[in-house]
Prior knowledge:
The protein is of the alpha/beta class.
Amino acid sequence: MGNIVAIVGRPNVGKSTLYNRLVGMREAITDDFSGVTRDRKYGFCEWNGKRFTVVDTGGFVHGSDDVFESAIRSQVRIAIEESAAIIFMVDAQTGITDLDEEIAKMLRRGDKPVFLVVNKVDNHNNMLEANEFWGLGFENTFFVASISGSGTGDLLDAVVEHIENEPALETELPKFAIVGRPNVGKSSLTNALLGEDRNIVTPVAGTTRDSIHSTYNKFGKKFILIDTAGIRKKSKVEEDLEFYSVMRAIRAVEEADVCLLVLDATQGIEAQDLNILRLAQKRHKGIVILVNKWDLMEKETNTARDYELAIKRKMAPFDDVPVVFISATDKQRIFQAVEAAMEVYENRTRRIKTSELNELMLNVIEATPPPSVHGRYPKFKYVTQLPTHYPSFAFFVNNPNYVRDSYKQFLENQLRKHFNFKGVTMEVYMRAK
């Protein structure tokens, strides 16, 4: 399952600073142009060869103080169920508060490994005062200054010991996940696909209680559907639906080959959708956008073409993605959605013969050579596709540093133009010959 490490704690103890450290500042900066940084609440971390997703729960709490506390309680509950490990953050300068005590009690009752992180320990006096936090009873207690990053390496070393790079579901079949915000119609889509006729659906052995995998087999198409919607027993407390659905989406994205991102036509593509999209991109998953409830829009003046362009503008720079307009309740264009997902799956596994690649790309490069850098021109010798589980290409060139990003983008666009990689992110590397 997608390994999730959740950062929990009261407001203003430094959760997002720690999150930025773990996920890497570079990412925070590179995503800045699309205006999603403020909104980014989860990202990808790799440490000692272990991979996991970090979730900053602080981004999900809105409202007044009393609302705060109930939201934090429900998040801690969800985190205990959905995470592989939990980082519980407290502030050395304020000492142990009642809310800290309460969170600690919940975490001790849970069954997940907890790492207590005492933040803002930046001098010897602080260190002495910080010792009171051992009283919360967590043997994994770390003292850090997340601003300077001291102590985060030790913390990560300890966290990844509890993370297994779990083997993917053993299957030759494509794995599709339906993801999206709450109430956009994920369950209706699942029902429309699998139909009431559940005999085409066979639960896959060995899947966990909290995500239902079904094998879909009709119209000559066969795949596994990872369904993470609506599985949860409604608990007595009013759960934080947004936070819960994000935890579910992360796990589904990790397991899938292709993610079907469902949007509500009446709302368009929102920040939370873009977050899921960026996560799927970073993990090199195939992507199909399904605009659901299109039947409610057709009476309006919107044409599908304009609507699609508006979505793609927000998705830029990566927008070579199929967009299918569906209505899950009327079963409109459901089959087209499946075909699009199948095509993206094939694109993700597409291999191009080296001879064909060289003949085409070297001609393209000759016709549109790269601009010079300091009066020097990069000379391309050879190109080959790398043996990764998603499309990636290495261009061998006499001096890789002379190839500008804009030219790399040009090469990617040419690859997309001549070969079908719709719905799939690709990597283009420059290697020294």
